[in-house]
Amino acid sequence: MIQKVRGTRDFFGPEERLFCRIESATGRVFRRYGIQQVRTPIFEEAALFSRSIGEATDIVSKEMYTFADRKGRLLSLRPEGTASVVRFLVEEKIQVTDTLKLFYLGPMFRYERPQAGRYRQFHQFGIEYFGTPTAAADAEVISVGHALLQELGLSGHATLLINSLGCAACRPVFLDHLGVFLKDRAADLCEECRDRIDRNPLRCLDCKRDGCVHAYESSPKISESLCELCRRHDAEVKELLADAGLAFTARDRLVRGLDYYVRTVFEFVTAALGAQDAVIAGGRYDGLVAALGGPDLPAVGFAGGIERLIELMSKLPASSTPGAAGACSASVFFVCAEDRAARRRAFNLAERLRASQISTLLPLSDGKSFKSQFRAADKSGARVVVILGEEEAKTNSVSIKDLSRGEQQTVPESDLIPTLDRMGIPRDA
RNA sequence: GUGGCUAUAGCUCAGCGGCAGAGCACCUGACUGUGGCUCAGGGGGUCGCGGGUUCAAAUCCCGUUAGCCACCCCA
């Protein structure tokens, strides 16, 4: 038996429905903010990702699916969405007059050790705002994330963490201070952190080991070395969020793994998912567009993980995931006699109901008793059963049974659809 | 990439050297045209895969694949 490759998964049943709900929610919420969708390829030249995400990051250095095609071009399956969106923007010379708002949704690929909430093919949606350096843009992006969680009934299950990483002017100063501090205290730190001092000092602050957590209590704070512009920007973002009634926690130690972030970074995290706790995360990346050969456009955005949202929603009470019962929820289920004439009539009537936007199931297999057809109808979750037996055939009528009430009536065939309408059977539900 | 745990029916799991099991689900039936509840019966297994130890392996050992948990990293 061939099984699915490690770290990939199939979505079916309740999980597939949640996937679908999340996709449609992103469309609804993002369009509410005037954000346009862009669908980019899922593979690109490898260099696009190494240049944008950062050569030294884990994603680029060890997690990319990179391969040579038949002409020897080095290609990569995309590990995230932002690089492609920026490439699109630059390549197509998209005019950005005020703010350009884009969103994407689709599969991403990273060669990581799989774990719940972490897959080798996973699905992300994300938004990117280009052309606006203002705190208002940051605040709106964060608010879009919040609105989406709210749309999914998750706003009570996620906390917003926010931080500022400073800019090209003040971050180097901070990194100097931090470097001095870390080298000073190197003896107290775990092996991982000692490795990170030169490679990725910011990450040290996020270490969870007790000794390190303790050591970092006295470390220099980013917030204290922000330049005046960054400080004002950060204060304004927080002010706008507070005005909007959006609760957040300022967390000094929040950092991001991708090189391109500046100033605002944020995460919506949940307590319900274990180690993989971020469901939506993002920040500002003002230098990236220029770094990829485009105009010097400021940008801010986020990405969200669909598998993690599905997992979170699965853990919530069933009330928040309607439509979970029944393998297929058609409104009408046909039960008919064995003879060929009855089957022809059932097939024909079922097609007429479907043409009238009434979802209808028709048993396609032979040799089923009325009893088992009724059982199947019950299990399918259908509202009504339409019966075509010998009696009905003689009088050119149909019997309609309301499964929840147990009431049954026989009407002329021409009255079938009007009767279903009267019973409140929905069209196109 | 590192460490730990796990793999038995469609699902959840018990069995831990001696006949392959339970609950749920599924199918059939309970006065020949009617679901749910109840009752009776039934189908379903390469015990993840490969090797080894043993008279005998689901059970013990080694390997392998996959999943889970933590680290790492991240959505």
Describe the protein.
The protein is α+β, with helices and mostly antiparallel strands. It has two domains: 14-170 and 226-320, Bira Bifunctional Protein, Domain 2 (BirA Bifunctional Protein, domain 2, 2-Layer Sandwich); 332-422, Anticodon-binding domain (Rossmann fold). The protein has helices spanning 14-32, 46-53, 58-62, 82-91, 135-151, 171-184, 191-199, 201-204, 210-216, 222-225, 228-243, 288-291, 306-315, 340-355, 370-380, 390-395, 416-422; strands at 36-37, 43-45, 66-68, 74-77, 100-109, 121-130, 159-164, 249-250, 262-269, 278-284, 299-305, 332-336, 360-361, 384-388, 397-402, 408-412. It has an eight-stranded mixed β-sheet with strand order 1-5-6-11-10-9-7-8. It has a five-stranded mixed β-sheet with strand order 13-12-14-15-16, with helices on both faces. Helix 14 links the parallel strand 12 and strand 13 (360-361). It is elongated, with a radius of gyration of 28 Å. Residues 319-327 have low confidence and may be disordered. It binds one RNA strand of 75 nucleotides through helix 3, strand 6, strand 10, strand 11 and helix 13.
Features of this protein?
429 residues, alpha+beta, BirA Bifunctional Protein, domain 2, Rossmann fold, 2 domains, eight-stranded mixed sheet, five-stranded mixed sheet, RNA-binding
